[in-house]
Design a protein that fits this description.
CATH superfamily of the largest domain: Response regulator
Radius of gyration: 21 Å
Distance between the termini: 50 Å
Number of domains: 2
CATH class of the largest domain: Alpha Beta
CATH architecture of the largest domain: 3-Layer(aba) Sandwich
Shape: globular
Strand content: 15-25%
Number of strands: 16
Number of helices: 12
Largest sheet: 7 strands, mixed
Strand order of the largest sheet: 7-6-8-9-10-15-16
Order of helices and strands: HEHEHEHEEHEHEHEHEHEEEHHHEEEE
């Protein structure tokens, strides 16, 4: 379904349900940009569905101040130039009041620059590059942060695995590269050796030379700072090469149920990180999580993945900001929406969403999960753990 059709379907559905009078109020237009095709399509589609569900629910409640919402969704195809073009079209031609979405910072960064020039808020759903909040872009906000990843991935290596030698392989994307450098610095300050620290280009199909280094350097743990498809290849090629390590930790995408489906028995014992997923609800709002899971499954015919909640919670934060403006009788413009978003303080199943003066989330949290018995269980930090980690030899 094309983006304009999506927006029209939302409005037509409302009209058919009798939600709006014959002369409907002018729609409030929000622009969304995600990779819906290409190598990152799984991630982008998951985020999009969370956003779309939040918008549909808001329209069912009457929209914003009596105005229906129109979501104009664009596919950046995983290409920065397409993300840039989509942002310019939405901000310039369609005069959207805000932008939302985004996966990986090579795509998020260009959108943020357009939003700043257009003086409209951009709420990124999956962004880690620390430079993006250090450039003085007052229109940029995000619901995820690098610090949470650093804390749990280095903590589990030190406190649970008791590793002495760590290998780090990382994708040459901004967030993944920064995560790897932060991990390396912390390990070396703690006296943990990092004999393998290797970047690779997205889409690499043969990890054998890098894995040979992991084996030759006798690494205890492999930190895979990359994405879903890369993790699958790494695990399969490790098995083919007979490489055994104490723990494999994937930073992004190991929490997807697709890992278990794709790898089967080979997924047992693997580690990843998550902030929310069915069965792992860090925000402490179990009833809301269950309602979201039920609504999402009804709407899309599948159980939501963690990125779906990132999209949903981000959209709820943006819609809460717009609702506040409507209740106060203030005009909804890019600048007023920006200021309202900066003041949002909202409890969601993803956790509390509130931003600092740079647009960073103050309360974003992640945990380490391990695949045990065909499902993800929390094993770190200890205060969040629902099961002990299963280590080799136990």
């Amino acid at each position: 379904m094309g983006p304009l059709v999506v927006a029209l379907a939302l409005l037509i559905g409302l009209g058919a349900a009798g939600a709006w009078p014959a002369r409907a109020a002018e729609p409030l237009v929000i622009g969304e940009i995600n990779p819906r095709t290409g190598a990152l399509a799984l991630q982008g589609q998951s985020i999009h569905q969370g956003i779309a569900l939040a918008v549909e629910e808001q329209n069912a409640r009457g929209g914003i101040g009596g105005r229906p919402l129109a979501l104009l969704a664009r596919d950046d195809e995983g290409r920065p130039e397409r993300a840039l073009a989509a942002a310019e079209e939405l901000a310039g031609r369609h005069r959207v009041v805000a932008l939302i979405g985004g996966y990986v910072d090579s795509l998020v960064g260009p959108i943020g620059e357009v939003a700043d020039r257009a003086r409209i808020p951009y709420l990124a759903t999956a962004s880690l590059d620390e430079r993006l909040t250090q450039r003085g872009n007052r229109h940029f906000f995000r619901v995820s942060s690098l610090h949470a990843y650093v804390r749990v991935t280095t903590g589990v290596v030190q406190e649970v695995f008791k590793a002495e030698r760590v290998a780090i392989l990382y994708s040459q994307t901004p967030g993944a590269s920064q995560l790897a450098r932060r991990q390396k610095d912390l390990f070396e300050r703690a006296g943990i050796r990092v004999p393998v620290f290797e970047p690779f280009s997205p889409g690499l199909s043969d990890f054998t030379p890098l894995l040979a280094r992991v084996r030759d350097q006798r690494a205890d743990v492999l930190l895979s700072d990359t994405f879903f498809a890369d993790h699958l290849l790494l695990v399969r090629q490790m098995a083919q090469a007979g490489i055994r390590i104490r723990a494999f930790v994937g930073a992004f995408g190991m929490e997807f149920p697709g890992v278990i489906r794709e790898l089967g028995a080979a997924s047992e014992g693997l580690y990843g990180t998550t902030s929310w997923q069915p069965g792992v609800m860090l925000g402490g709002r179990e009833a809301e999580s269950r309602a979201f899971i039920e609504a999402y499954t009804r709407r899309f015919g599948a159980v939501p993945v963690p990125l779906s909640m990132h999209g949903y919670a981000a959209a709820r934060a943006l819609l809460t900001a717009l609702e506040g403006l409507a209740r106060a009788g203030k005009p909804i413009t890019g600048e007023t929406a920006r200021d309202a978003l900066a003041a949002v303080d909202l409890e969601t199943p993803l956790g509390r969403i509130k931003f600092d003066e740079r647009g960073e989330p103050l309360f974003y949290e992640r945990v380490i999960v391990q695949i045990q018995g065909g499902r993800h269980v929390v094993v770190y930090p200890r205060e969040r753990a629902t099961a002990p980690p299963i280590l080799p030899g136990r």
